[in-house]
Amino acid sequence: MKLTANYHTHTALCGHAVGMTADYLKEAVAYGYSEIGMSDHGPIPRSFMSKEDYANNWLERQMDERIFETVYLPDLAHARSLYGSRLKIRAGLEIEYLAGHDDYYRHLLTKVEYLLLGVHYFSTPHGLQNSYMPVTKEDILMYAETVETALATGFFKVLVHPDLFLIEYRDERGEWLFDKTAELVSRRIVEASIRHGVPLEINLGGIRKGRMPGRVDVDYPYPRRAFWNIVEEYPAAKVLFGCDAHRPSELADSSIQEGFAFAASFSFPVMTKLD
To answer: How far apart are the first and last CA of the chain?
Structure first.
């Protein structure tokens, strides 16, 4: 099996990837892709959060609004002129959702065709919480609320790595935890995705990180099997693969076959491309 479409693709502008749009399109053509979406981390205005939160959530290293307008969009346009006759190319962004700024997301959608929702940080009563830092039961409930609120806006085409909230949800021994709260959060996320017709992504970037010791077996940091067991209970859920490519070669590396094998262990079908 091979992947012929991917909508989760980064460039060097995110500060932790290599290559620009044309580098990815060249590889996509060579690998036989019929469709690709570029979706680097979207700019979040500094005014949306404190100076400390802006720095602590890695926003200093990724493109800002100026780079988005003067580098990212022109780079996409140039790459399309080179490869647009050989495959379908979509312009997008992966971005956080911060409530109260819906006009900004509407503005971005006049510039690109789609937005991916990636919740790397989210609002809580004690401030912004990063998904890669230790989280509590109360925190992951706020993660679920963020996803529900964001998907209800209609701005987002895919919910990427929907199980990221589990990566630092651990028990007193520091081992991965999937308890009643995690199950509730998972169900809220899946049900919101169904309610708003938004596919859930099996993130191949998490598979690329390798298997890590879990509480009862060996699992990926994401996709986490416990979460996808919940997804399997919902026949109406939509599922899509996402390469989360940070270098061109990751459009066709071993994570894809591992992802196919992971998905094949469940009963749900996986979409081959977006509408």
So the answer is: 21
Average pLDDT (141-157) is: 98
Torsion sign across C-alpha atoms 35, 40, 44, 50: positive
- DSSP for residue 113: S
Task: Return d(Cα 109, Cα 42) in angstroms, integer.
Answer: 11
- b/e sequence 77-105, b meaning 16+ C-beta within 10 Å: eebbeebeeebebbbbbbbbbbeeeeebb
Between β-strands 114-117 and 88-95, what pairing exists: parallel, antiparallel or unpaired? Answer: parallel
User: What is the β-pairing status of strands 88-95 and 35-41?
Assistant: parallel
Phi-psi region of 65 (alpha: psi -120 to 50; beta: other; left: phi over 0): alpha
Asked whether 141 and 185 are in contact (CB, 8 A), the reply is yes
**Overall domain count for the chain:** 1
Residue 218 to residue 38: CA distance in whole angstroms: 32
Residue count (the chain): 275
> Residue for token digits 């990566």?
167
Range of the domain at 46: 5-264
Q: What is the dihedral of CA 251, 254, 255, 261, to 10 degrees?
A: 120
For the whole model, what pTM was predicted? 0.97
Give the pLDDT band (50/70/90) at residue 167: very high
Q: What CATH code is carried by the domain that includes residue 35?
A: 3.20.20.140
> How far apart are alpha carbons 93 and 91 in whole angstroms?
7
Structural domain includes residue 36:
yes
**pLDDT above 80 for 214:** no
Chain centroid to Cα 209, Å, comes to 15
